[in-house]
Amino acid sequence: MSEPLLQVRDLNQHFKVSRSFTVKAVNGVSFDIFPGETYGLVGESGSGKTTIGRSIIRLYNPTSGSIKFEGKEIAGKLDRDTEGMLRRDMQMIFQDPMSSLNPRKKVGDIIGEGLDIHHRYVTAAERDDVISQMLSKVGLSPAHAERYPHQFSGGQRQRVGIARALVMNPKLIIADECISALDVSIQAQVVNLMKDIQESTGCAYLFIAHDLSMVKYISDRIGVLHLGYMVETGTTDEIFANPVHPYTKSLLSAVPIPNPEVEKRRKSIAYDHVAEGIDYAKGTEHQLEGTHSVLATDEELARWTA
Amino acid sequence: MAEMNEKAILQFQDLDISFRTNAGTVHAIRGVNLDLQRGETVAIVGESGSGKSVTVKACVGLLDANATVNSGKILYRYTDEKGAQQVVDLLTLPKRELRRTINGSKIAMVFQDPMTSLDPTMTIGKQIMEGILIHKKADKAAARARALELLELVGITDAERRMKAYPHQLSGGMRQRVVIAIALASDPEILICDEPTTALDVTIQARILELIKDVQKRLGISVIYITHDLGVVAKVADYVNVMYAGKIIEVGNVNEIFYEPKHPYTWGLLAAMPDLETDDDRLASIPGSPPNLLHEPVGDAFAARNAFALKIDEKAEPPMFKISDTHYAATWLLHPDAPKVEMPTELVARLERARKEAEKYL
What we know:
The complex is a heterodimer. By secondary structure, chain A is α/β, with parallel strands linked by helices. Chain A has helices at 49-56, 80-89, 107-117, 124-137, 154-166, 184-201, 212-218, 236-241, 246-254, 260-263, 298-305, and strands at 6-18, 21-33, 38-42, 64-69, 72-73, 90-93, 172-176, 204-209, 221-226, 229-235, 284-289, 292-296. In chain A, strands 6-7-8-3-9-10-12-11 form an eight-stranded mixed beta sheet, sandwiched between helices. In chain A, strands 2-1-4-5 form a four-stranded antiparallel beta sheet. The model of chain B has no long low-confidence stretch (mean pLDDT 88). By secondary structure, chain B is an alpha/beta fold. Chain B has two domains: 39-66 and 93-237, Rossmann fold; 259-359, no CATH class. Chains A and B meet through helix 5, helix 6, helix 7, helix 9 and helix 10 of A and helix 7, helix 8, helix 9, helix 10 and helix 11 of B.
């Protein structure tokens, strides 16, 4: 395989709440994202999936561990050039399209802000041109540049958020629950748009979500998080065809399937790591097949795969 | 009193509601008919703004002050203290009467967000007992015993200790269990769940849905479910009402809706949601966005987003066409003179797959 675009190794992100209490949001998480692929992060709320995304894009300063983007270390202090490069090549799409767009700015200026900051144009006409192109690319009309965010519907606003991320031609886009706030029919529109864009620009996605069926649909590889630990990771097929970790199994069993005869007879599998005596800190990463690996002690792995 | 379907316990008849806003009148509900029978679960599915919440809020008197009920009835059948059958129109009942006799005691509601529907300054024990003390006129000791019983019913262990906990000390799933316990406190006949699991994680969602199902089976109550998640509908519902732009556009039992949908909007909804086997390159999406009901739609409200729209869709609103005794859909495609239209191929494949899988269980 080619060089990974993003390499996360042993990432720890702890938040000190008081002298005696630290929230350990992310513990020793490692994964790679290759150019042009989609990596899905799933887990329940509080599992640390959003924190990982925010650590990568440098909204948090990691407690320890390394994050490499195109082979360059990006955790910790950076020189200006690297910082500038990152601000261009890594972009984020946020969950709530209303609160992530400045209500006092016109959509054209929201999208153009990156261009302004990085001096990516010579004449104003050139800037407008890029903005109109961006708007048409995400399925809005160039005339929409003159409008304000509140004049759009939820799905359209999320398109603006996507246009803003795309305008810098990023290599990696972190999409944090970017479709959770949208209606089912609109979700499909946005997901299709994201797929089209990936095909035409070759950007990679870190797709953070809790909706497993959508994650399965869009992702090439998946990482399952629980309580800040990456309990299982592998290609989408590996995870879905052969889940090993009991948490992954429980997660898969909980996804409601739109098939009444099947769904009415299915019972979700409960998972309680305390009752099962699983201590994530004791587990080590076990390679199963290909890229499929699971966090477990030797004895646990033997029990789960038996 | 008005006529009512024999078996129904709750019946919406031609409900029509509009809201006065600064921008003009929003015609949010445009003639909704819905039956709920004893012991059944009816789901209302639709996008945000389709009017599903407004419909059920009308029957518990929770409509906002700027709402006007233009026409329609919500009939509710109950047995009074003397054992006689009574039918009332919930819309004409004075608000005080509604609060005293219906809300909470006969029809209870579970809201979407368990944090905002609980009082943060009261212990959960007190909150559960509140309804019992008021509606059942029980003494404190009896109410307490009943509250403990309810907490156990909704699967909260160590109920004695939890009675003294405040909402912020519980997780989201636990809070929603408490809300359900409160709703069940005074033995309602109808439980209305307005997106009860949307704010929760999938694993917890599954647990809560199974809990509601289990409670329903044990107590024999009727449930109205509001959701936009078709997976949830498949899990819980007996009958499904698909709502679009303030109207019910397709209704049927759960198998009819999921295995033989007739309305293009239902096709779109089903196709837009990938099942775990979908590996097509693109999801079939419904283009555009729902209509703004500030402007009264002419003809079929869905026509603008409908790839199968006929000319007549722009002029006249389709009536409900009957497909079977339980299955109706409002689309001109079902008219005998309409051209034969096949549903999208991906969906055909999907339904085929679903039916095959279902056959294993039949």
